[in-house]
Amino acid sequence: MVLFIGAGSNASFAYLDATYDRFTEVVGGVEVDRVGNTLPNSPKWKIILGAEYMLDFANGDTLTLRGDLSWQDDVYFRPSNLPQFSSEPFTVINARLTYQPDNADWLIAAYVRNLTDTTYATYRTAGITPNGNTDENLPLAVFGEPRQYGVQLRYSF
For 97-123, what is the mean pLDDT? Predict the structure, then answer.
């Protein structure tokens, strides 16, 4: 792996071993032992990398390029650790280009969030059948934000 380290770089690595030591869940009136299962929303690994390069012009203007990468391991959304209520590992990349004139109270930036338009689940739960019953074989997912891009104009006063 190559990691660019320059002005404004950051890196974060997290390891989480989050399993139940003691936990019994009541499912359909029956107690189910969940000892050893992974806690919901607890990725084992999470990595965040960021790098920023600033170009200073002779007239004092500044152009800044920033990139961020976030990778998260798979997670379960329920104590049962059933695969239909989980998320696969995913990566999200963001980028930003900022221009600020020398001694100016304003700046302009162009940005892209989720550059590769990665589709990833932020939550999964049991769906509802047409007759109103909960069905664990009909998972319902909430997804993260798709690719977004825009321009920002900021004025400081």
Answer: 96
Over range 85-93, report the average pLDDT.
Answer: 97
As beta bridge partners, residue 116 has none
Cβ-contact 111, 145 below 8 angstroms: no
Confidence tier at 77 by pLDDT (50, 70, 90) = very high
Return the domain boundaries, the chain: 10-117+145-155
DSSP the chain: ------TT-EEEEEE---B-SS-EEEETTEEEE-TTPBPTT--SEEEEEEEEEEEE-TTS-EEEEEEEEEEE--EESSTT--GGGEE--EEEEEEEEEEE-TT-SEEEEEEEESTT----EEEEEEEE-TTS-EEEEEEEEEE----EEEEEEEE--
Question: Model-level pTM?
Answer: 0.84
